[in-house]
Amino acid sequence: MRLTSAARLPRSTSALADLVHHLKGRIVVFTGAGMSAPSGLPTFRGKGGLYEGTQVEELATPEGFNRDPDKVWRWYAERIDQVLKAKPNDGHHALAAWATFAEKLTLITSNVDDLHQRAGSDPVYRLHGDILSASCVSCGNRTRWSETPTDTPTCSCGALMRPDVVWFGEMPSAAAFEAVQENLPTAQLVVEVGVSGAVSYGFSEAALEAGLPLVRINKESSPIDEHCMPLHGSADEVLPMLVHAAASF
Ligand SMILES: [Zn+2]
Questions:
Q1: How high does pLDDT run on average in the chain?
Q2: Can 128 be counted among the known catalytic residues?
Q3: Of 147, 159, 195, 212, which sits with the fewest C-beta atoms within 10 Å of its C-beta?
């Protein structure tokens, strides 16, 4: 269904009234790459990225890892280095602050960095795992990076370690999906921040189908904008404004 521009205004006005009413209620927030981009972290699944002549998408697969674990680890070491050096931006801080006065704020992210956690959000449900963690492919022994790994890491049992991230062809976190299933039906407001369609899992569409007001914060527009409240801009600029407005009602 496409709404005409004439139909859009009354719909937006009523959505705005709902929004104001629910800013301190039960909120579900989905964040994606656009959340961490203002912190200097490039998008993970951008099309067309090359690393040592290989499509980045091919490195983030179990097959790619089995083929050339050293190359995969060189790529992840660069990513880990970027995450360790990055700092949470004003958007991360705004979301952590929002949780302190909302009735309940459930935060679900497809990002594998720890910037939400460092800003003070807790819990953070991570669909795609944690890039600062690695586990043994044989015994499951875990390690956590506080410094960038310089070599392909191996476990004390002798087997390879792999990054604790969800690769293409693997299942996203069940706990994160359960958090969505548990909290979306009772949510009063859903906010999507910097999420690209490819990794959205249809959460926002489900929210719209359930009749929930949806705020979509993104630098780029989307067909879904006609059915929600789009706020076009960078997460580190738009979120502080929204949360400031929420605090003042
Ligand atoms: Zn092991």
A1: 89
A2: yes
A3: 147
